[in-house]
Amino acid sequence: MKPRRSLLMAALALIALHGCGQAQGPSVTVRDAWSPAAPPGAAVVAIYGELIADRDDVLIRIRTPAADRVELHATSEENGMMKMRPVTRLELKAGTPVQLAPGGMHLMVMGLHEPIAAGGEIPVTFEFEHAGKIAVSARVNAPQ
Fold this sequence. Notes:
The chain is globular, with a radius of gyration of 21 Å. 14% of the residues lie in helices and 53% in strands. The protein contains one helix and ten strands.
């Protein structure tokens, strides 16, 4: 009777482990990340794209090995002047895309470690409260 019981316990453990291995993919997708090429000597570039969450989530941190820091900024007009302000926390609602676009919300990559030329890529890691870390490469486009 004991060997049968041990076999049953081992089978149940394997089923439980198999279920744990069925990890869900990230619940946030970062699409079409891009940056305009930086002018010679520039230490700052912007990154644009789109974030879309399958479930409510919160963007809590952004990093890149290409620069000292990355901040999420919102652009607004006040008294005829365009102003940027850092956004420390971005809440994403399930199914509602968040556009990172020129003249709107965008990433500011500051303290570049080397020049960013057209045709290159900038690695960026987004960290979300639920989805965890999502690494993408922002393509660098030639100036238009």
